[in-house]
Fold each of these.
Amino acid sequence: MARLFQTLIFAASATRVFASCAYGTHLMPRAEGEVKVSTFGYFGANGPLNWAALALPENSACATGTNQSPINMVEEVFQVIPAADVTFEVNDMPDGAEFENLGTTVEVITQGGRLVLDNKEFALQQFHFHLPSEHLDNGTSQAMEMHMVHQAEDGQIAVVGVYINIATEAAPAAAKRSLSSRSRLFGRQENVTAPPASSGAPSTLLETLFSVVDQISVPGSKVTTPPLVMSEVVDAVKAGSFQAYSGSLTTPPCSENVNWRVSTAKLNVSPASFIKARDVIGFNSRFPQNAPGSPNILMVSALGSAAAAVSVAGTAPAA
Ligand SMILES: [Zn+2]
């Protein structure tokens, strides 16, 4: 059965894959001055059922790896770590940041930040968005998920995942004022009133970012964002816990040994900003994978499909 599966993989096209969750890391070095558009996708022959075949052997883990992401986040698959005990810092970006459309996601190129896990330092490279969420929060999909991608000197990757829900409250007047006057007032962040992320009010960072997402609706395009205050996200994450597990990139090449830290703190996005982001991102969520340590769900599926084919052939009426 495994040979049948390999044959199917080799028979498919071998298109190179250019960008992913790992864009900007050693796995997918960023090209100077241009935005490289991904060649993998989320449906049909370019979709996650067929990612391995798009580039072999680089993407083989997508079909054979046994610690693949995303997963359903239920208690038995992760360790809970209080985020207050973890060094997690993200630099503000007072001059704005480069915001790119990679074709498969929209991504912000960060300007410094770090995560320290077991005395190992990971430097923040970028953050990007999935819609809907890739991880499931105890079986429940969230509106979006932000991935903050970090890399250590030895190339290992650590990702902080933050769920994003639809805001149930309007932005407080103070937050609205701070948005409109952010450019002038930047440098006096201590006076900016950002709503607590758990309040149901929209995140100031997300509202600021998605105010310009329609300017990068074309894959390969980029824009400079307004000034970005990252302390709101850091404070929200630090107030919660991390659900920690060892998984993979959720995009080709699906490399494993990725340190996942999914935050229990959630951000909110206003309905209007969610629609703007959705109209640019479309759909970019890999289906949930088998529990860590279990056989890859595509291998399980291939065996099941082959068994079904044998069964159908055996029962077919003679012509
Ligand atoms: Zn991602």
Amino acid sequence: MKRQKMDWVDEEKKRRDSGHKRPLLQTEHWAMNTRYPGETLEYCCDCNQPTGRAGKAEDSLYTEDDDGPYCWDCWERLGHNA
Ligand SMILES: [Zn+2]
């Protein structure tokens, strides 16, 4: 099997696997998820369920104290309003 040179998607995946996540652009999410399905799903910091949101730079739910991201259920349960 021919080994392919690593490109930025592989590099990013490697970084994420080692715990260094960064906000991604929508196009980057798309590229990541195309190669690694579900890779860039965002998980709630409280219940660990997918938030269904796209990242801090997008529509993710963060408190004013920068806690998050939260899923909608936890967000509401904690008394936040959108
Ligand atoms: Zn939650």
